């Protein structure tokens, strides 16, 4: 098993790095860091077989690129900033990108050779914006699939979750769910049955639990929970959110408090705080787990290190290795 970590390339990073996952249980650790893809700004990426599909920036252009065995295969670049997120459907060979700076959502196909083709895109307009300084424009930060096969975006600037249909050629807006003003809607995850979703609010450092009827596009605001202690009075931004496959534990990273908040999901979908565990570094944007969800790796962007944890039966995280050197990490992905 391997772990891929990529991120910004503003300082010493050369792109995407791969680690070997060695050992078992409490003896697990990461070894042999090596730069496997040289690319500018791979802040988010996905993998399908031999192909890595990554965000890329180069010479004032941004977009998405495919790499095979470390070599560039195809790219779709445009003037300006690169996207912030890449989703994937490996069966349909589709990629979904959200561009925080331009407000554009895009659907891109790829073929057996990794060639990329833009299928459609939509522009989020700069209207119905939130009250915070960070919400001066539309800022979609997430674009991916729903349990029912539709598409969903999170817009930090508009405090909104938007749902789309895609017929293979064209995107069509279907419905919206509105978070509270200043929530800073960033990422979401769906409960295993698809009848609830959990939204991470970057600007409010909160998680909103929402009951969801995808057939009739009905929403019910269930409850909202803080990802940071009440006593915390410094800057914080909630970032990545993940839900265990059994739907019993929810995890959110805190950039500022520099922690991962762990919640147990109760039968009525209320959340109970289990733990806030340090990431032993600064500004943890992303974290991820292996297929068994036994091990978790969090990347600290500002301190150029990652932390490895073992996940316990009660959902809590036990640190195993704290100072794994990796520059400017913002994306973590376990691979074969």
From TrEMBL:
Matching Pfam families: Lactonase (PF10282)
One annotated GO molecular function: isomerase activity
Entry annotated with the keyword Oxidoreductase: no
Alphabetical keyword list: Isomerase
Domain of life: Bacteria
Protein family per UniProt: Belongs to the cycloisomerase 2 family.
Protein name: Isomerase
Gene source species: Lactobacillus nasalidis
